[in-house]
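Backbone geometry:
***
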Amino acid sequence: MSADEIGYQIALQEARDSMAVGGQPIGSSIVDTDGNVIGKGHNMVMQTGSPIFHAETSAFHSVLHKPRSIFEGTTLYTTLSPCSMCTGAIIFFKVKKVVIGENYHMSGREDFLRQHGIEVVVLGHKPTQELLASYIENHEVDW
C-alpha cells in the first residue's frame, strides 16, 4: 500500500466513525513528510452543533499545543473536497499536498489550492462517493 493509500484509508475510517455517531461521513488525516500521521479528525458539526468542526479543521484541532510549523510540507487527506473555510486553513498551515477522495458532492476549490502552490490529487474513490450518496439520500435535511 502506498503512503497516499494509507493516509486516505485513515481519513475514510474517520468518515465512517463520524457516521457511526450520527455525523456526516467526512473524514481527514494529516501525514508528515516522514509518513507519520500527526492529526486526524472527522466532521463533527452534527455532534457538537459547531459550524466550524469540519473534517479538516478537526484534524488540525487534533494537534493542539504544537507549533503551527508542524503542518508545513504535510499531506492532508480528505474524503470530500474541502469547503472554502477548510481550503483557507490548508493554505494558512502551508500544507504541501491535498488528496481528495471525491469531489462529486462538493468541488470548486481545487484550482484555488493549486493557485497557492498546493498539489491536489482527486482520487474519484467510488466507495467514498457511494458512502456520501447514501448518507445524502437518507439525511437530506442534514446535508
